[in-house]
UniProtKB/TrEMBL annotation:
Record keywords, A-Z: Signal
Gene Ontology molecular function: carboxylic ester hydrolase activity
Protein known as: Serine aminopeptidase S33 domain-containing protein
Source organism of this protein record: Deinococcus radiophilus
Annotated Serine aminopeptidase S33 domain residues: 215-415
């Protein structure tokens, strides 16, 4: 899901606030859940990091063998990014009251550097959070982190089967993921879900939403086998996304479709790809490498311009919606062009808005210089879209400010609508994630309890049923 398509001014260096001193006043903060007594061997902490006007939830679980033995294990919670109780490295920092927690196998290596003050329920953990070059002060209170309400996420018992699988991608890179299979013998038609830009887990977790989990659940209940994978270097998958070229990533999709075609529960002639955002471009690339061609393509809010064109249009659309004037917009656009060109930026360029700090992993100079970013910026999807002969559904949100109409919907109409069986549709009132939206700005994503609008879900499954004559 999105990610890179958030304004690339994220690449500008962020100011690094000094670690909070223990003598600083601590804001009053009620526990997310009442800090009920827990086993002496387990401590639960919760807090937040501020991004513009948003408070992004953060949690930490510390476990020890038995008191008074010191803490042996740390689990980090960043539900907006899909980190839910993930085991992290724990070391001492400074004196005996200091600790450092780092999630090394996650984009930007989220790190907490904390110092404990106070006793018992009056104690707090205070210090700093970093991810890539992003820095923020943080305070954690006793209690469990609150997960945002996401009513569309499936709850057991489920009326279908789930398998953990490993697909060997291009160059034999192991890609781990989840295959959901409807009840019954099959064989079933199948879908491969292709995530948007940046490192995404198999659920395409963003701002506490797990849209691929919701989409897979919907389609599996409709009788489709669905495969979703962790991106390279994310979750359980091997490899390095930043070091990968588009040919590597499209090759991964070819291998995943081949995996599905050989699965005994899948109808080999009815396998297709569903790509979101950048994943739409990669799905079209893979479709033209596959022999035979896939049965269908579903392109969700995908761009039809180069990444460089898209980032410029996206930035202007978002800053205009945020109320900036033309002079301010042009200044930010110039800084973005500098960042894309790999130029060093002055340290005073730190006044990032909330929507520009949505994805801290983008604060990374190696990322700016990566083969992956170079392909994103330069790849033009128009020739592949013109050649596309696969039946295709292209869906867009009317209020999408990450792939604005001129970069997506309007161009896709010209490129795809002449082919029989294709449908290009813009859904009213929806944003880049196909959620109901007011402004369409990324800052709204987390505030919305709907993960995928039901109209979009039914449009996808309805079109698939027609295209596959089910």
């Amino acid at each position: 899901m999105p990610s890179l398509l958030l304004a690339l001014t994220l690449l500008l260096p962020a100011a690094a606030p000094a670690m909070l001193s223990t003598s600083m006043p601590v804001p009053a903060r009620p526990p997310a859940l009442a800090a009920s007594p827990t086993a002496a061997a387990t401590e639960e902490w919760h807090g937040w990091i501020r991004q513009g006007e948003r408070e992004v939830p953060l949690g930490l679980t510390l476990r020890s063998d038995q008191p008074p033995v010191g803490t042996r294990q740390a689990e980090l919670w960043l539900p907006d990014q899909g980190v839910r109780g993930q085991l992290a490295a724990l070391t001492k920092s400074g004196d005996s009251d200091g600790l450092r927690v780092q999630l090394s196998r996650w984009p930007g290596q989220p790190t907490l550097t904390l110092k404990r003050t106070g006793q018992g329920r009056a104690s707090i953990l205070q210090g700093s959070f970093s991810q890539g070059a992003y820095r923020a002060p943080v305070t954690l209170w006793p209690g469990r982190v609150t997960l945002p309400a996401r009513p569309q996420e499936p709850r057991p018992p489920l009326p279908y089967r789930t398998q953990e699988v490993t697909v060997l991608g291009q160059g034999a890179v192991p890609l781990r993921g989840t295959l959901t299979l409807p009840a019954g013998q099959g064989p079933f038609p199948a879908a491969l879900l292709v995530s948007g830009s940046g490192p995404q887990d198999r659920d395409s977790t963003l701002h506490g939403h797990r849209p691929f989990l919701v989409l897979a659940d919907h389609l599996t209940r409709q009788g489709y086998a669905v495969l979703r994978l962790d991106d390279r270097g994310t979750g359980g998958s091997g490899g390095d996304l930043y070091a990968s070229r588009y040919r590597d990533l499209s090759g991964d999709l070819v291998q995943a479709v081949t995996f599905l075609r050989h699965h005994p529960a899948v109808r080999a002639g009815q396998v297709g790809l569903i790509g979101h955002s950048e994943g739409s471009s990669l799905a079209v690339m893979a479709a033209q490498q596959l022999q035979p061609a896939p049965a269908y393509l579903v392109l969700l809010t995908g761009p039809a311009v180069t990444g460089a064109e898209l980032l410029d249009q996206q930035l202007r659309a978002q800053l205009n919606a945020s109320g900036l004037n033309l002079t301010q917009i042009e200044a930010r656009a110039a800084l973005q062009r500098q960042a894309l060109a790999g130029q060093a930026l002055r340290p005073d360029h730190t006044d990032l808005s909330g929507s520009e700090v949505e994805q801290a992993w983008l604060h990374s100079r190696p990322f700016v210089q990566s083969p992956y970013l170079r392909d994103f910026v330069t790849y033009d999807p128009r020739p592949a879209l013109r050649r596309n002969q696969v039946p295709t559904l292209a869906l867009f949100g009317e209020r999408d400010l990450q792939v604005p109409r001129a970069a997506g919907y309007l161009l896709m109409q010209k490129l795809l609508e002449t082919q029989p069986g294709n449908l290009i549709r813009e859904l009213p009132g929806l944003n880049h994630l196909l959620q109901p939206a007011r402004s369409g700005l990324p800052s709204e994503y987390a505030q919305q309890s709907v993960t995928l609008d039901p109209a979009a879900l039914h449009q996808i499954s309805g079109w698939l049923n027609t295209a596959l004559k089910r």
